Amino acid sequence: MSHPSADAATVEAQRQRNRRTLTYGESVSDFSPGPTLRPWQRTAAGAGLLAADGTIAATIFAEMSALAANTGAINLGQGFPDEDGPAEVLEAARQAIADGVNQYPPGIGAPVLREAIAAHQRRWYGLDVDEASEVLVTAGATEALAATILALVDTGDEVVTFEPYYDAYAALIARAGGVHRTVPLHWSTEQHRADWRPDLAELDAAVTDRTRIILVNSPHNPTGTVLDDETLDRIVELANRHDAIIVTDEVYEHLTFGVPHHPIATRPGARERTITISSGGKTFSTTGWKIGWLTAPAHLVTSVLAVKQYLTFVNGAPFQPAIAAGLALPDAVFTDAAADLRAKRDVLAHGLEEAGFVIALPESGYFIVADAAPLGTDDGAAFCRELPALTGVVGVPVSAFVHADRQTAYRSLVRFAFCKRHDVLEEASARLASLSAA
């Protein structure tokens, strides 16, 4: 794939600059037009964690989780469930351990799981996937993303994502030497539902011949929006026009609330240039198992595997057949899980509104975005640091998922997780109600 603007001289010049590193006493601000950093520093900078003095900050998730632990607050900041997934999945893992499935599985993944992933794509989406050459099992969706970006993005290549974005995207793009371009999702709460939509003209402007990857997260974290067919079709059109690869993060694919998820790989003209990424962690409440996968045309799988095999090599041998068992469960297991999560969403949504927040009701996922401005704050990050002492509840600021130069539009927004037990959400709602009386 060619990028006319990134000629050999430009690329070599950038590589030379990348050999320049911070020395003692220098700060990031000493470099113009921008710092040239060690790869680890570049990774931290991409995620917004590198301070001007060269120190590394903790992620917002680590900071807020530590705050929850230190104060005894209810942690609605990090997106992990506090209930186990289907009994059949857990028992399958126990049985696999008992049966001796405890050594290295094949590098591309256990055959039983690759077969189950291919069957899942056919069953739910009508996608015909060859389990032998078009499926790769990874250490969670994050490794699939990391291996894909490291395999396909070189110095100066551009990667387009929507914004807000999962923070790992920015870190991985920076580590690969790429340039992160973003298209904002615009906040709206009309008709009391999430309406985070991109302006298609802004999307058109962001994708150019320099674009190597268009990274699509739908269902979307943190907003909970599910991109509509018009947006998906425009992405496919742009990818074909500019010869870009589409990479999709679909980990919330089965956790939508009355809105269908249509994988972009099902759209005309998309299949041959799309890498579809998902995992079992969100669907089966097994986030700690870290069993993810990608499906793609065989030549793209080969490209990603060339990098992935030197990251984790393999992982989770007894958990792979367990996730395979989960993927084969009846439809009702998937729909019931989404219905239960929707009920939890509604509990927290009611509590946030009673507390005085303005919310956008999400169409999917684990999170509600709430605007704290009606409570008299325009700084979501400061508000989140004060909230445990005020109410005994922890959230995370949406600004953590936004580039520094785009903070203003998202500054007062806070993300809360509702993937918790009903009683925990009810208690959190009761605690938050004290804000309205303040």
Care to describe what's here?
The protein has 438 residues and is α/β, with parallel strands linked by helices. The protein has three domains: 10-46, no CATH class; 60-84 and 332-437, Aspartate Aminotransferase, domain 1 (Alpha-Beta Complex); 87-328, Aspartate Aminotransferase, domain 2 (3-Layer(aba) Sandwich), CATH 3.40.640. It is 39% helix and 14% strand. The protein is built from 15 helices and 14 strands. The strands form three sheets. The protein has an eight-stranded mixed β-sheet with strand order 2-9-8-7-6-3-4-5, sandwiched between helices. Strand 3 (158-163), helix 7 and strand 4 form a beta-alpha-beta unit. The longest helix is centred in the C-terminal third of the chain and has 25 residues, at 331-355. Residues 1-34 have low confidence and may be disordered.
